[in-house]
Amino acid sequence: MSQAANTHRFTNAYYRLVITAGAIVFLFSAYRLSVEVIDGHFLLLALITISLGARITVRIPGLNGHLSASDTLIFVALLLFGGEAAILLAAAEASCASLRFSKKPRTILFNAGAMACSTFLTVWVLRSGFGSITQLVAGDYTSGLIILLCSLGLLQYSFNSGIVSIVAALKTNQPIWETWRKYYLWTSITYFAGAAAAGVIAKLVTAYNFYALIVSTPIIAIVYFTYQTYLKSVEVSATQAAQAERHVEELSRHIADQKRIGQELQESREHFRHAALHDTLTGLPNRALLKEELMLAIKRANENENSPFAVLFLDLDRFKIINDSLGHAAGDQLLVAIARRLMKCLRPRDTVARLGGDEFAILLQGAEAWSEAANVADRIGKDLMQPFNLSGHEIHTTSSIGIALSTTFYEHPEDILRDADAAMYRAKENGKARYEIFDQNMHKHALDLLQLENDLRRAVEREEFIVHYQPIVLLETKEISGFEALVRWQHPQRGMVSPAEFIPLAEETGLIKEIGSWVLKESCRQLSEWQRQSGVTRPLTLSVNLSGRQFAQPDLVEQVHRILQETGFDPCCLKLEITESVVMSNAENAIRMLTQLRALGIRLSIDDFGTGYSSLSYLHRFPVDTLKIDRSFVNLMGVGQENSEIIRTIKMLAGSLSMETVAEGVETLEQLAQLKALNCEYGQGYLFAKPMEARAAFALLAAQIAESKMTADWLGSNVAPARPKLVSAMAA
Ligand code: C2E
Ligand code: CA
Ligand code: CA
Q1: Scanning 186, 198, 554, 637, which has its CA 20 to 30 A from the CA of 358?
Q2: 503 in ligand 1 pocket by Cβ < 6 Å?
Q3: Where is 487: in which H helix or E strand?
Q4: Is the whole model's pTM more than 0.70, yes or no?
Q5: Which of 469, 486, 637 to mutate to test the pocket of ligand 1 (most atoms within 8 A of CB)?
Q6: If you classify domain 3-244 with CATH, what class do you get?
């Protein structure tokens, strides 16, 4: 059987026990009650007790209970009319009082039974200790009466609370002692107070007769109601006090909340300010914060001659290659590592900021800022030259640094940054991995560049470009197999501007798209025209350069297709040259684009091969026909064994990928001999011909064709011609 069922069984049995015992006690007391006791006084007392007893209550301040008049009145009955009368009255009063809050017969009977039993036990203990109670009350033995009253309170309290706590403990499944202590301990006071009050009333009645009590009732009532009113007002003030306390609590909570919100606001404001002024990747100050600091430095320098400052503008020399070949994550890692090294090179009062990409700027302040600037640049340059280890890859990089000093009374941060930037450009031009200090000539150079950019925009509209053609020859026979189209800009004032000067600018400004498209169309038109000339029997290949910006155009394939249709040029004869770094920078995209171009029937070359970072895993997936060996390797041929080794390796690689090779920049006969020995198929260079205008290029072609015809005729007729000095003729 479960514990709950057990408890239920015990509770029921206990109820039954108390009710039965109460009934027996009640009947027994009724039987023993002598009739003369039931006089008018008793009935009046019984009536008051039953009807009003439980309703007249006095709250005990500070305790969770109240004194009810019924206990006092039952004690009065006990003291004046004897035990049996008190037992019967107690049982009757308890059942009537219970009726008011419960309709359950069992509860009503239990309360009546409990009251009957406890009163009964009290009466019997008192009787055995004191003899007749009524007599003791009537007598003059005051101390005996006091002891009786104390015992009365104690006994009634003990029995009654004992009986009731048992049932409460059974119901809540708690230990009896616990229950008693928690719910009934405090009630003792009501019993003692009740007993004392009953003693006073009983004494009054016996001394002055019953009506004295009735007469004093109004006084008692007045005292009672006054006390009740007093208690109520105490209660009201207590509630008000509690409410006030709550308000104070709420208010302080509100104040604390406000304070916390204010603090959080301040923190988030600081957080946002920090985020707005710092670079997320490296945590360094960003351009905005650097400008703020520069503003202050400029102000100080203008006010006080002893507050010079210097700005170092730093740009990494090979960042793009590293980023393109190893991926952005590695690039980011490198930038973070560089930021750390830069901070180590500086004093706490100096500022290092990341301006974006691989550009950093350093602000040196203090009396020795100028004298220190070059030293710091030198130190940084050397420090960054030490290899970086990026997830297992050893990376080497160098930096170019431009220095601007606060000499020329700068007014805006942008001005000094611009000059430091110009000096950095000069450092790049002068061979990278070095620093340069700004001078006014550089400012002029920067202005020139700006002018050039404006001119370039106009050049597109004014069609100031022409195409030069440089022959590409079959090394074995020196026969012209095709031409590379190389753009030239005929500047109205400057004369011929080299592509090395304006192509990067055109790339930067996006003008390269229009220029490139024009070059392709013009050269295709030109070659078609040559092909149609009578006498040109061999197919000529046209090589056209595509810049990174052009290669990234989504409509490139359509553009090329349209140009081929418009010019009627045979796609098989067109070869597009794309530099190694462009194809490798986004290999997957490059494969897609190259495949689409290939589908038009076009052939493809990788230009400047050997200068970038080629991933072999990609190389075999590129639908490419030709590798153009960079000029720098050909140039160095013969200088050291190592350089021809590089070409040999490229040649082997091309062979295994079924690609042809074109050697660029062939200038000497020795280079030619070595390239031939390495089985390189094609060559291009000043040794054969410089890039030249269309008319000259065609003349050269025609001369060669005519010459080979003469040779063929001679072979046929056996007449010796003048020996063709092709190489020297073209190189002239
Ligand atoms: P590139 O594609 O590598 O072109 C070959 C460059 O090497 C040409 O310079 C050519 O004149 C030069 N060259 C040829 N043989 C020799 C030689 O034996 N010795 C030396 N020292 N140089 C030689 P150029 O014409 O100044 O062109 C420079 C670069 O400009 C080209 O390099 C190419 O990247 C770019 N470029 C030229 N035309 C165009 C164009 O129409 N579109 C695009 N996107 N880029 C072009
Ligand atoms: Ca090229
Ligand atoms: Ca090249």
Answers
A1: 554
A2: yes
A3: strand 479-491
A4: no
A5: 486
A6: mainly alpha
